[in-house]
Amino acid sequence: MKALIIDEHIAAAAAAEGVAMHALLRELYPLTRSITGAGLRATVMRLGAEVPLDVTEVPSGTKVFDWTVPDEWSIDEAFIEHESGRRFAEFRKLNLHVVGYSTPMDTTMTLDALRPHLHSLPDQPDFVPFVNSYYKPDWGFCLTHRELQSLPLGKYRVVIRSRIFPGSLTLAEHVHHGSSTEEILIFAHDCHPSLANDNLSGLVVATRLAAFLSRRETRYTYRFLFAPATIGSITWLATNELTLPKIRHGLVLSLLGDGGALHYKKSRGGNHAIDRAAWHVLRKEFPASRLLDFSPWGYDERQFCSPGINLPMGRLTRTPNGEFIEYHTSGDNVDFVLPQTLGQSWLACLKIFEALEADTSYVNLSPKGEPQLGRRGLYRSTGGYYTDVPDRQMALFWMLNQSDGCTTLLDIAEKSGLSAGILARAAIDLQASGLLQVATVEKAHRP
Ligand code: ZN
Fold first, then answer.
1. Neighbour-count burial for 238-277, b at 16+ CB within 10 Å, e otherwise
2. How far is the CA of 47 from the centre of ligand 1 (A)?
3. Tens digit of pLDDT for each residue in 263-312?
4. C-alpha of residue 226 to centroid of ligand 1, in Å
5. How remote is the CA of residue 130 from the centroid of ligand 1, in Å?
């Protein structure tokens, strides 16, 4: 088993990873996911073929903090049919055509009576919107504004073959055990039907990260959690409170496949190691990246960073939710997601993990004067880790000079301007040469 070193070979593999992730995403795209139900289970089953998943079914009616696990929803068919026999908003053609959690229906009505149940986007007339009514019994159809405007007058048969019944909500986890029981939590929501960047990109990146880590030795234990947005993360938090003290760092992943730059949103605390590591990696290695302050809005960071939970958890996306016109529409399809950005997002996550893994304080075992590096072969590029020899040598000097048992690797990265990855590799070489060791009593990370 290899340690978590993200060298040039792994960086070069990111393109192929992106192609594999995009293929997996295309397979998952047609499934009718929701916050419960068969499409959600089928998604978890398919991801479970990539990495082993522990699946927990939490029964409808279970109280979870201020919420209650809802009844399960299943759907087989939905359409509206004009008296001429022409059908519109056919669920079988696109699952976004039916409002999520629509109640069953088989009736006939005029277009005027039907209209309040039809949803479209006048500003984006070629996209079908994504609409749900999880907690209020309702029904409806979504279609392009162009199609809505072209609907012929007359009577319509409205058919929704759905069921709402006491069932369960599906949670899925993959745990990669490190040498420590301290955990890094990676969360991706899995409750959106045919939407590619929103939900599927996070799921496929997280799944391929888990598969990669399964072939590596790590310090941290990595917990990958796939659950419906909001109710799913709340359900997991409410049923796993004993796990929470072990979580040292966390990342919410979604929107990782569009063409925009990477965006890191800070945790509620704003200056945890995850905040420092993520922004260090993005700023240094993905130069167009942007840093966002915490806000109690967005994805499941809202739950993980609620005041009574308050995990050190940030969020990684490309273009944030609501800032691209395809968001929550049929425009967020498989062609909107690019293999190369999926691969780049995967690589960025690995580099963040690499920085967190190495971020501890070390002790220089030969601190009086500089140790003689040439004698130990440290002036040569060893192991093929480095293409930039001056940086590599500077990394050795910085690690030796600053390793006083208190200063952490991220402190040194910030002081030196060198990447955490290069410093991490220098730390490994110096430890192999007997010049450095991990400090026995780690300084706590900055608050
Ligand atoms: Zn969404």
1. beeeebeeebbbbbbbbbbbbebebbbbbbbbeebbbbbb
2. 19
3. 999 999 999 999 999 999 999 999 999 999 999 999 999 999 999 999 99
4. 14
5. 9
